[in-house]
């Protein structure tokens, strides 16, 4: 996917996340893009690694910075202790119109992710995205059962209790089932 189309998807995603109750900080965008790619197969071409708070892409971080430099996204400062929120600009609206064919192809995907992740807290986002990460990357670390995947998630993220990890796995399994109707 070329940069212009990717930018249109990212700005539309920011707008839809906010419309669905998201704080829309960088963590929200990171986890939402991860789900777009790894759950719904939207070809965004970002490389993700498991990092401090779940799947993270340094390439995506750079792209968000570039979108701010191109004045397609802006940071809206918030009162401490909260971090800034990302918002699409009027210039982003023009880019989205120019990339309407791509957005038409992926609007359902964007809407699905925004609805699923919009109301989630940063802590919940980490749990859900890491649940998908664990589920998709078996590598002999788990046998596919909820309990085994929850144990694996807990090993990778010891601050997430096993019971909470199992709930995140079950919620991600539900989202994976729902996602089949979107693909």
Task: Give the SSE map.
Layout: H1 3-19, H2 26-38, E1 49-51, E2 54-56, H3 58-69, E3 73-76, E4 85-88, H4 90-98, H5 100-117, H6 122-136, H7 146-156, H8 162-179
Antiparallel strand pairs: 1-2, 3-4
Helix pairs in contact: 1-2, 1-4, 1-5, 2-5, 2-6, 6-7, 6-8, 7-8
Account of the protein in words:
A hairpin with a 2-residue loop joins strand 1 (49-51) and strand 2. The protein has helices at 3-19, 26-38, 58-69, 90-98, 100-117, 122-136, 146-156, 162-179; strands at residues 49-51, 54-56, 73-76, 85-88. It is 62% helix and 8% strand. The model has no long low-confidence stretch (mean pLDDT 95). With 183 residues, it is mainly alpha-helical. The chain has one domain. Helix 1 (3-19) runs parallel beside helix 5 and helix 2 (26-38) packs across helix 5 (100-117). It has eight helices and four strands. Strands 1-2 form a two-stranded antiparallel ribbon. A two-stranded antiparallel sheet has the order 3-4. The longest helix is centred in the middle third of the chain and has 18 residues, at 100-117.
Summarize the structure.
The protein has 183 residues and is mainly alpha-helical. 62% of the residues lie in helices and 8% in strands.
Give keywords:
183 residues; mainly alpha; two-stranded antiparallel ribbon; 8 helices
Net shape:
globular
Number of domains: 1
> What integer is the average pLDDT?
95
The H-and-E topology, N to C, reads as: HHEEHEEHHHHH
- Assembly context of the chains: single chain
**Helix and strand composition category:** mainly alpha
Number of helices: 8
* Strand segment count: 4
* Low confidence ranges: none
Main β-sheet, in a few words?
Answer: 2 strands, antiparallel
Strand content: 5-15%
Strand line-up across the major sheet: 1-2
Radius of gyration: 16 Å
Provide the helix percentage.
Answer: 55-70%
N- and C-termini, Cα separation = 17 Å
């Amino acid at each position: 996917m070329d940069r212009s189309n990717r930018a249109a998807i990212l700005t539309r995603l920011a707008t839809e996340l906010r419309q669905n109750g998201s704080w829309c900080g960088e963590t929200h965008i990171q986890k939402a893009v991860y789900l777009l790619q790894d759950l719904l197969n939207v070809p965004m071409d970002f490389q993700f690694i498991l990092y401090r708070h779940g799947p993270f892409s340094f390439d995506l971080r750079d792209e968000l910075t570039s979108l701010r430099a191109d004045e397609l996204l802006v940071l809206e400062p918030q009162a401490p202790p909260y971090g800034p929120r990302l918002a699409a600009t009027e210039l982003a609206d023009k880019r989205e119109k120019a990339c309407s064919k791509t957005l038409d192809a992926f609007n359902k995907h964007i809407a699905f992710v925004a609805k699923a992740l919009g109301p989630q807290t940063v802590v919940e986002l980490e749990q859900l995205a890491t649940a998908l990460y664990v589920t998709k990357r078996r590598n002999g670390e788990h046998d596919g059962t909820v309990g085994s995947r929850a144990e694996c998630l807990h090993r990778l993220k010891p601050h997430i209790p096993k019971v909470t990890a199992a709930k995140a796995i079950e919620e991600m399994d539900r989202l994976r089932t729902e996602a089949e109707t979107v693909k």
